[in-house]
Amino acid sequence: MSQKVVIQRLLHYLKQDRSYLLWAAFFALTSVLASLYAPLLIGDLIDAVTNQSDYHEMLKKLFLLIGLYGFYSLTSWIMMLFSNHIAFTFSYKLRKELIKKLETLPIGFYDTHDHGDIMSRFSNDIELISDGLMQALSTILSGAVTIIAAILFMVQINITMTAIVILCAPFTFLVGKTIAAHSHKYFINQANDSGKINAFTQEMLQGIHTLKLYDQEEDKIQQFQALNDQLYASGKHSQFYGSLVNPSTRLVTNGAYTIVGISGAILAFLGKITLGNISSFLIYSNTFSKPFNEISGVMTQLQAALAGAQRVFALFDLPQEENTDMQKIEHCQGHIQFRHVSFGYEANHLLMQDLSIDIPAGSRIAIVGRTGAGKTTLINLLLRFYEINSGAILLDGVDITTLSREELRSHFGMVLQDTYLGEDTVRNIIAYGKSDTSDEQIIQAAKESGAHEFISRLPQGYQTYLGSHSHLSQGQRQLLSITRVMLMNPQILILDEATSNMDTRSEAHVNAAMEKLMQNKTSFVIAHRLSTIINSDEILVMEQGNIIEKGTHEALLAENGAYAALYQSQFQLPKS
Fold first, then answer.
1. Sign of the C-alpha dihedral, residues 89, 91, 93, 99?
2. Which has more confidence, 394 or 150?
């Protein structure tokens, strides 16, 4: 994405705050006019002192000068308020749109992008945009008015010296632009490297227990150091070129200032200009060049802001999940069919080929297989987290691609190994998928799942707030998850390793709750421990994305195939 396109998109957002922009421009104009009228008074005061004019007249001009500077300070402050409002509103809108965009992206995006890098775009990049805009807006608004007004005031004093000042201005702009253009790629690299180091840090913190267990701190420190060195190098390059801008432009403007001073001295010697006018003109000359220096000074921040905007807009431009809303299933039965389904995470590498299964409503289906066999992929396709390459998946005879994702997923409930509860009160955590429910319904669901007993022992019962570090056992967390699904009462359940990593007593409680949950519902149970799925209506054995065996526990053992080998590996001791 080119800088020009990024700037156009930023301007599109700025136009939404047109009224604030106009007010900021108005106060920029008034503050600049106040500051530019002051040098005329200074020149008049110098000439008045030189010519020994009336004392009262000089005093009046002195008080007027003080009033002008006071007015200038007030209007500058108001202009900054409007500029800050625009910048903060801009970042607010960006974050709001970005979170909406992230909600529409397919699961595949999150499987292939570091979460730390995504968070970096939310925080670091948008903050860079906000800071850059805040500085750029105030500088450009006041700078543009200052340049035009300064020329008008300078022309009134001396056209020749004005021409010298104006002719030097393009060189100042050219120097600043050249350095800024060259440094842009380094700011892009710096933003990307910052995203990488955030992603690495987040991953390291999430796995801190494992890291310490296996004594891998030193290895992780070395990996972090490599990323930190990379960020340091890109940051050093970007800041090096960014720091060149202001001194380089000041060199040009100081040269122009010198030439103007010499020209003024010559004209004064010839009697064509007064000492007061020279003083006023030199102030105007410095005022005229000041915006160029200030604009070049914010170039560094502006380049960082553009680099951040480029990364944020890159997310905006990602294709989102296409949604349909053609049909609804009023009374879902849970009859599921896979018809000649083929799928691959990459188009040229199919994981599943011509998969066909028919699952009657109310069936309890177990899915087993080695790690990477395709168990979770099968569920992801059923929930339309990924789209199939060919074939069809039907729910109660309806092609799921003709249902909106919200409609499809409303008929499913999930209890996963890694339980996500969120941070809220116990009541709201249970009502997560059904916020309009009553307290009585929530308590009834908790009693059915067996969670009511431990909830009642919490400090505030159902109003107890559970944060990210709440001390609930894995079994208690799973019971809350099951209660949540019970309250929603979907017709199809997905239970993925729901009782792994539990002690025997907790597992017994959770299994009892799940037995109640699965009554009269179509259930998919993904499990490595085959003892938990012996009573399933049908067991699907998967390998390399395809179903290689299916049948009841007894039938599959009788076949003495892949399932029998898996079962024997878990329940028979190796021969001595």
1. negative
2. 394
Cα–Cα–Cα angle for 571, 574, 576, rounded to 5 degrees? 145
How far is it, in rounded angstroms, from Cα 409 to Cα 362?
17
Q: Which two tokens stand for residue 239?
A: 């800041």
DSSP string, 254-307: HHHHHHHHHHHHHHHHTTSS-HHHHHHHHHHHHHHHHHHHHHHHHHHHHHHHHH
Q: Find out whether 394 and 430 touch, Cβ atoms under 8 Å.
A: no
Question: How many angstroms separate the CA atoms of 368 and 566, rounded?
Answer: 9
Q: Please state whether beta strands 546-551 and 398-399 pair in parallel, antiparallel, or not at all (unpaired).
A: unpaired
pLDDT of residue 406: 84
Residue 119 φ/ψ, nearest 5 degrees: -65, -35
How many helices (H) and strands (E) are present in the chain, helices listed first?
A: 19, 12
Residue 574, pLDDT > 60, answer no
Contact 150, 287 (CB under 8 A): yes
Contact 517, 486 (CB under 8 A): yes
pTM over 0.85: no
Task: Give the model confidence (pLDDT) of 175-184 as tens digits.
Answer: 766 766 666 6
* Strands 522-526 and 364-368, bridge-based pairing: parallel
* Structural domains for the chain: 3-316 (1.20.1560.10), 419-489 (3.40.50.300)
Residue among 556, 493, 548 at smallest CA distance from 526: 493
Q: Is the model more confident about 175 or about 476?
A: 476
Question: Residue 31: what are its φ and ψ, rounded to 5°?
Answer: -70, -40
Q: What are the pLDDT digits (tens) for 347-375?
A: 778 888 889 999 999 999 999 888 888 88
The confidence band for 573, taking pLDDT boundaries of 50, 70 and 90, is very low
Q: Residue 261: which region, alpha, beta or left (left: phi > 0; alpha: psi -120 to 50)?
A: alpha
In whole numbers, what is the pLDDT of the chain averaged over residues?
80
Round to whole Å and give the CA distance between 217 and 239.
Answer: 31
Calculated CA dihedral for residues 69, 72, 78, 79, nearest 10 degrees:
-150
- Angle, alpha carbons 300-301-305 (nearest 5°): 120
Closest CA to 375 of 417, 405, 323, 406: 417
In angstroms, the CA 516 to CA 482 distance is 10
Strands 390-395 and 336-343: antiparallel
- Unique residue bearing structure tokens 């294709």: 319
